[in-house]
């Protein structure tokens, strides 16, 4: 784009007889290698060359980016149809464009307060309840001391207080209440044994706060295996996430773009089954799925940005509303079917989408927690 402004590079004295990249023989008149496309020049790099090449690539990508974004948002289904019909150089690659949009979305979403995990208001209320309870207990003890029968017989007020309040307070759970020996564990099935161990490990850590798995297994008289150590570390992590869920929410959110990237091919399979009579192969359905999902991320980027700047909630709601209509129009324009068929398949696809999304989320949470 900007090569014509670089007069030095245009001189024949900088033209080589062989491509420095693929070693194809060249003529002096060849400005670019016809095999790999590299510029035919032997001139040493300078800051000016780097500057020109950088902005040339930026503007070229920006042109495709703007066109892709404009068609994607304002002409539902057109970009997918153009892409499968061979008009690909004018648009950004659908898979790379998806990853770019999803990463930007989750970065912006991280700035919002939708995923806040710690509710300090609840913690303060719990503290106030404890203070009030202590105050009520003190009043109750002082009232018991004034009862004539207790004063005359010198009955200990503390013992009466314990009897009066017994059953009101929840008994603190301890790992010893559910403890099983190693021999007892060996008689259980693997899923049952694993569940018991996780519960015991979790309660043990809450009581003792010992993060060293080897010491804990020795104290519990369990086998010091890699599996038992891993289970105990997961119990420690669970306690950490339980007290501050935002840690895991941030970790899981960062992985979502790639989770959805591998989830969409499965969803495209169901689209192919629903439109099996239409003249589209699986890859063409997959491209449509990626374009639609990218549009959702772009709308969320706009919605989250509006909510963040205006401190409101209507931007996210509006993005969801617009996307429902956009998805219907995309299906109608891309698959070229009537309104009744499109609406029916629209409902079926949404049911499949949310069902698969729920299953994928559960699996992703389990896997993410396991590898954290």
UniProtKB/TrEMBL annotation:
<dbReference type="InterPro" id="IPR022134">
    <property type="entry name" value="DUF3667"/>
</dbReference>
<feature type="transmembrane region" description="Helical">
    <location>
        <begin position="282"/>
        <end position="302"/>
    </location>
</feature>
<feature type="transmembrane region" description="Helical">
    <location>
        <begin position="348"/>
        <end position="371"/>
    </location>
</feature>
<feature type="transmembrane region" description="Helical">
    <location>
        <begin position="256"/>
        <end position="275"/>
    </location>
</feature>
<feature type="transmembrane region" description="Helical">
    <location>
        <begin position="95"/>
        <end position="112"/>
    </location>
</feature>
<keyword id="KW-0812">Transmembrane</keyword>
<keyword id="KW-1133">Transmembrane helix</keyword>
<keyword id="KW-0472">Membrane</keyword>
<protein>
    <submittedName>
        <fullName>DUF3667 domain-containing protein</fullName>
    </submittedName>
</protein>
<dbReference type="Pfam" id="PF12412">
    <property type="entry name" value="DUF3667"/>
</dbReference>
<feature type="transmembrane region" description="Helical">
    <location>
        <begin position="308"/>
        <end position="328"/>
    </location>
</feature>
């Amino acid at each position: 784009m900007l090569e014509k402004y670089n007069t030095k590079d245009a001189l024949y004295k900088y033209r080589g007889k062989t491509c420095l990249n693929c070693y194809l023989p060249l003529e002096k008149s060849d400005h670019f290698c016809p095999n790999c496309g590299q510029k035919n020049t032997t001139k040493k790099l300078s800051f000016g060359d780097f500057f020109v090449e950088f902005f040339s690539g930026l503007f070229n990508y920006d042109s495709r980016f703007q066109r892709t974004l404009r068609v994607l948002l304002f002409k539902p289904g057109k970009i997918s149809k153009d892409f499968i019909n061979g008009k690909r150089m004018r648009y950004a690659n659908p898979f790379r464009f998806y990853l770019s949009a999803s990463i930007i979305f989750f970065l912006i979403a991280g700035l919002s307060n939708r995923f806040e995990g710690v509710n300090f208001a609840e913690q303060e209320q719990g503290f106030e309840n404890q203070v009030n309870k202590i105050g009520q207990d003190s009043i109750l003890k002082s009232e018991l001391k004034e009862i004539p029968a207790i004063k005359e017989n010198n009955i200990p007020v503390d013992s009466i207080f314990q009897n009066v309040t017994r059953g009101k307070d929840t008994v603190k759970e301890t790992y010893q209440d559910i403890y099983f020996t190693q021999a007892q564990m060996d008689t259980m099935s693997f899923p049952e044994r694993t569940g018991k161990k996780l519960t015991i490990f979790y309660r043990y850590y809450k009581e003792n706060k010992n993060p060293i798995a080897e010491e804990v297994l020795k104290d519990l008289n369990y086998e010091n295996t890699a599996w038992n150590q891993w289970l105990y570390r997961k119990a420690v992590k669970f306690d950490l996430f339980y007290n501050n869920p935002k840690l895991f929410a941030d970790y899981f959110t960062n992985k979502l773009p790639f989770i959805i990237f591998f989830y969409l091919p499965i969803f495209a399979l169901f689209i192919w089954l629903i439109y099996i009579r239409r003249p589209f192969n699986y890859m063409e359905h997959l491209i449509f799925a990626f374009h639609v999902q990218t549009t959702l991320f772009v709308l969320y980027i706009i919605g989250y940005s509006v909510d963040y700047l205006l401190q409101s909630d209507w931007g996210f709601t509006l993005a969801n509303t617009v996307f429902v209509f956009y998805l219907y129009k995309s299906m109608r324009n891309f698959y070229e079917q009537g309104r009744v068929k499109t609406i029916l398949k629209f409902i079926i696809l949404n049911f499949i989408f949310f069902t698969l999304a729920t299953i994928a989320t559960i699996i992703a949470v389990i896997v993410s927690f396991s590898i954290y």
